[in-house]
Structure formats: structure tokens, C-alpha cells
Design goal:
It is built from eight helices and no strands. The chain has about 230 residues and is mainly alpha-helical. The chain is extended and about 85 Å long. Residues about 5-25 have low confidence and may be disordered.
Length: about 230
């Protein structure tokens, strides 16, 4: 009995190590947008709805929009530089910088979208039309999309690397998922192979147990007088 309890305790302790590792990982610092991007988002959230904007609010929207566009230009350069550094030296520290730049640009993009919704029609058309400012904004968004595509490629590769590392550390969850998927696959294939035969057996069983009604029952409805609705 003591031997059995000892081995159970030892097994539980061994299985708890991945949980402690995951807990320590979750306590690490996570990348967040820059303070300027967060401050800008808070300032935009404090603005009233477009219907209630005063002339002073419209001026503030134009000022914030101009500031946001300048910030995007600077952060795009920083984002590109962070990705270039990560390509040369794949490390967690450099990846942290890349994620910070990604989150910062994402926050600025949301801020710009919100400001465009609050801006006047003239400002909106100026920045989204086919004029010089609109073309400049299109190039800016295209550059951000290109950098984000590279970011997501690196992100997927790192996720795959982490998954493989976790499989080698503790393959039990992956094996269990594989068993469940294989079981569902077997059940599905069995159903596809036998569904026609099962339906035929069900149809024969129903036909054999449900007889035809007697002829007097079918003809009885002919002599029934129709029921007229009572006058309202």
C-alpha cells in the first residue's frame, strides 16, 4: 500500500512540472502598445459621438488625426527595423520588440479608423480618395500589410516550434487528441459505409409493424357530416 501511494505521488509530481513551467511563462512580461499609442487611444475614447462634436472637438479630431498619421510613419520604420533585426538574430528579446511594434501599429490603425469616423466629410474624402493624400495613405496601409504578413509568418513558425517542443516534453495530450480524432474518424467511416443498409432495415421494420388500416375505417370518413363553424 505504501509502495503504491509512493508511486502515485511521484507520478503526480512529475506531471505537475509542465504546469509550473506554464505558470512561470504566464507570469512573464507581455508586449503591449507603446505609451503614446495607449494615450492616444484614451484621448480618442474621451471624444463625444460625431453628432455632438463642437467646432473645438472637430479641430481636436484634425489635430489628433495628423498626429496619428505622423506616428504611423515613424512606427512603420521601427517595425521594419525590428523585423530586420529579428531575421538576423532569432531571439526572444528581439521577438518581444517585434510584437511590441505590431501591437503599437495595430493600436494606431484603430485610432486612425476611429478618427476618420469622427472627421468631417471633406477630411474623410481627402484621406480616402484618389488624391495625393489618399494615395499616400494607400501606400502606408499597403506597407503595414506587407510587414504584418511577414510578422504572421514568423508567428506561425514560432508557434509550430513551441508545439513541437511541448510534444517532446509531454506527448500525452497530443496522443490523447489523436486517439479521439481516430475514434471519430472510424465512427464516421462506419456510418458512411452502413447508412444505406441501416435505412433499408429501418424502413422494412416500420413497414412490417405498421399495417394498413381496415377498409371500413377508410370509408367511414365519407359518411361523416361536415362540422360547420358556430356563428360568432
Amino acid at each position: 500500500m505504501i509502495n503504491k501511494s509512493f508511486w502515485i505521488a511521484a507520478l503526480t509530481l512529475c506531471l505537475s512540472f509542465p504546469a509550473f513551467a506554464r505558470w512561470d511563462y504566464q507570469d512573464d512580461n507581455h508586449p503591449v502598445p507603446s505609451k503614446d499609442a495607449q494615450s492616444l487611444a484614451s484621448e480618442i475614447d474621451a471624444l463625444p459621438a460625431q453628432l455632438f462634436l463642437t467646432p473645438q472637438d472637430h479641430n481636436k479630431v484634425r489635430r489628433l488625426l495628423s498626429y496619428t498619421l505622423d506616428q504611423q510613419d515613424r512606427e512603420i520604420l521601427s517595425y521594419d527595423e525590428a523585423l530586420a533585426v529579428f531575421r538576423d538574430d532569432v531571439s526572444d528579446e528581439h521577438w518581444f520588440d517585434v510584437e511590441t511594434q505590431y501591437l503599437t501599429l495595430n493600436s494606431l490603425s484603430h485610432s486612425k479608423q476611429r478618427l476618420l469616423e469622427l472627421a468631417t466629410d471633406k477630411t474623410f474624402d481627402q484621406l480616402t480618395g484618389f488624391g495625393p493624400d489618399g494615395v499616400t495613405q494607400f501606400k502606408q496601409e499597403w506597407r503595414i500589410s506587407t510587414l504584418n504578413a511577414e510578422y504572421f509568418i514568423f508567428f506561425q513558425l514560432r508557434s509550430l516550434k513551441t508545439l513541437l517542443a511541448e510534444i517532446f516534453i509531454s506527448p500525452v495530450p497530443v496522443i490523447w487528441v489523436g486517439i479521439k480524432v481516430f475514434f471519430i474518424y472510424c465512427v464516421l467511416m462506419w456510418w458512411l459505409a452502413n447508412q444505406k443498409r441501416l435505412f433499408e432495415q429501418l424502413k422494412s421494420h416500420v413497414a412490417a409493424n405498421v399495417g394498413k388500416p381496415p377498409i371500413w375505417f377508410d370509408l367511414s370518413g365519407i359518411w361523416d357530416e361536415p362540422v360547420l363553424p358556430s356563428p360568432g
